[in-house]
Amino acid sequence: MANRATREAFGETLVELVGEGVNVVAVDADLAGSTTTGKLAAAYPDRAFDAGIAEQDMVGVAAGLSLTGRVAFTASFAVFGTGRCYDQIRNTVCDAGLNVKICPTHAGVTVGEDGATHQMLEDITLMRVLPNMRVLVPADYQASRAAVRIAATTHGPFYVRMGRHKVPEVYDGSETFRLGGSNVLREGSDVTICACGVEVAHALLAAERLSERDISAEVIDVYSVKPLDEETIVASASKTGRVVTCEEHMIYGGMGSAVAELLAEKCPSPMRFVGMTGFGTSAPGDVLLSHFGLDAAGIERVVEDFVRA
Fold first, then answer.
1. What pLDDT digit, counting tens, does each position of 14-64 carry?
2. Are residues 259 and 228 in contact, defined by beta-carbon separation less than 8 angstroms?
3. Which CATH number fits domain 4-167: 3.30.300.30, 3.40.50.970, 3.40.50.360, 2.40.40.20?
4. Second-level CATH architecture of 183-308
């Protein structure tokens, strides 16, 4: 199956939801083509609104629409859709528990040539710390469809993180996803790899290669970063005794930190973290994943050094 970007599922799923009777609207910040909300505008012009290059207004308009009974989605690039309007997300949406879904695209270093200014690496941290906010990080097109549906049908604030980079298909569409869930994609006994987003496919490839060197890696897709699937993660860590987290995001405060906080309390375990520690740079997405050690080869190195130590 051809690789697809997680953002490709966004507009398509919104259109489907409206057709199914869900009272969905979307507010964009002059990026409807890139975020794919243009598909909703084409199919249902009265359901899509463009706030222009004014992200604070975008969130404010979405908040107002939610108070009229709509399920309000916002769409921009992740760096703008969380950073420029953080005050509005915090004080207007989350404090009041409004039915607003923050769903930006173009997250992570795989934005590529746009460079550090557009490569949002702090968004999971910013969103998961907010009271009432739930955080989903889908691994592929099918997972992204599921994440948008969960957000649309569950009342209250959501953050769904999507990207521009085309990624391998991990799921075939038959799987089930739930808020607070995760999927064990490969069982193992020597080490647990917790991954989210674009890192899931790389973690699976790394685990396959590691098996050739007699290292048995369990791979968990931690698509629900907040709330976490505590039971599955603790059970896996208890079995393997080692945990490596992998995310296309800063290692400070992201999914890895969420897993570490959980295990510190319920199953203290040695850990290693695969992720970013500084700003990105301009290059093709695949080149950057390799450069920063976020690809399968980078995960392999960390896991093998950890297990062999």
1. 999 999 999 999 999 999 999 999 999 999 999 999 999 999 999 999 999
2. yes
3. 3.40.50.970
4. 3-Layer(aba) Sandwich (3.40)
Residue range 118-148, pLDDT digits in tens: 999 999 999 999 999 999 999 999 999 999 9
State the catalytic residue, choosing from 55, 199, 247, 300. 55
pTM score, two decimals? 0.96
The residue ranges of every structural domain in the chain are: 4-167, 183-308
- Quick one: which of 145, 123, 143 has its CA closest to 135? 123
Interatomic CA distance for residues 218 and 186, integer angstroms: 5
DSSP state of 117: T
Please give the Cα distance from 25 to 31 (Å, whole number): 15
3-state DSSP assignment of residue 75? strand
Note if 55 is an active site residue.
yes
Shared fold status for 4-167 and 183-308: yes
